[in-house]
Specification:
280 residues, Rossmann fold, Alpha-Beta Plaits, 2 domains, nine-stranded mixed β-sheet, binds ligand L263DTV3, binds magnesium ion, EC 3.1.3.12, metal-binding
Length: 280
């Protein structure tokens, strides 16, 4: 992926955040991934299936509201959920409402990069929101955004995301503006440089903590996690899943990752899910 799309660096932001001075970027990263086709998964075999949304289940689009949920995907996910005894959850950077608009509220969902969790109909706000701070940051960013028509701010319950997918040349300036806006708050807030976006998110909630929380929840506890994701924020989840004896699949072009398996594209991943439930 181009630097402009990720921001200014190829190094996963989630990694930079976590790494202490004594560690090196290559620690624990896989250098070669096994193809996902070499994975033998029995959907009834005690797995908990955890899927990222954008770039994993769904192809990326130029705006989060313009993604398409292929009509074969929902029935396949429902069937997989049934085969897995209900242990299927979405783990996304989107807010819960945004995820539910795409998938219905049929699936458990960890939203906002781990800051929120909905299990069935039970909403568990894992982390406290800080509306005052996030509103202030969003307001402070408005002039920088206005300089680049096509860039925009997504204000979520627990984060602010600045999108530049439509104006990749804005990546450097906008990332800089976000760093400045968040400068006095880095003790509690971190930056996630994703695909065409930079997000301000809580430090105490990640997709890794979401995985751990899910796997400690009724219906998931005692199962082996299977996690598929595509972006830097999924690295926290891959690491958590590895620690729980599970399997991580990186969807998209190979890169340094804590996942052990690879899948070239969301379309291939969807076909894998469909074949898995058809064969079961
Ligand atoms: O964790 P995910 O489920 O992968 O969600 C990550 C972010 O997804 C959305 O933005 C990304 O997808 C958009 C639609 O394809 C795309 O236009 C944008 O450039 C991507 O960054 C969503 O808007 C964010 O809130 C999520 O954090
Ligand atoms: Mg993703």
């Amino acid at each position: 992926m181009a630097n402009a799309e990720r921001g200014e660096t190829d190094e996963p932001a989630a990694m930079r955040d976590r790494r202490g001075p004594e560690q090196h970027a290559s620690d624990s990263f896989a250098t070669e991934l096994a193809p996902m086709t070499s994975l033998g998964i029995d959907p009834r075999g005690g797995w908990a299936f955890l899927f990222d949304i954008d770039g994993t289940l769904l192809d990326l689009a130029d705006h989060p509201d313009r993604v398409v949920v292929p009509e074969t995907l929902l029935p396949a996910l429902r069937r997989l959920k049934a085969l897995a005894g209900g242990a299927l959850a979405l783990v996304t950077g989107r807010g819960l409402g945004s995820a539910d608009r795409l998938f219905g509220a049929d699936f458990d969902c960890a939203g906002n990069h781990g800051a929120t969790l909905r299990l069935g109909t039970t909403l568990d706000a894992v982390a406290a929101a800080d509306d005052l701070l996030l509103d202030g940051i969003a307001t402070a960013l408005e002039p920088a955004i206005a300089a680049y028509p096509g860039a925009w701010i997504e204000r979520k319950s627990h984060s602010v995301a600045v999108h530049w997918r439509r104006v990749p040349e804005a990546a450097g300036d906008l990332a800089r503006a976000v760093r400045i806006a968040v400068a006095g708050h880095v003790r509690d807030w971190r930056l996630i440089q994703g695909k065409g976006v930079i997000e301000i998110a809580r430090r105490d909630a990640t997709k890794g903590t979401a995985v751990e929380r899910l796997l400690a929840s009724p219906g998931y506890a005692g199962r082996r996690p299977f996690y598929a994701g595509d972006d830097v924020t999924d690295e926290d989840a891959f690491q958590a899943v590895a620690g729980l004896g599970g399997v991580g699949v990186l969807v998209g072009p190979p890169r340094r990752t804590y996942a052990q398996y690879s899948c070239p594209a969301p379309e291939v991943f969807r076909r894998w899910i469909e074949a898995l439930v058809e064969d079961a």
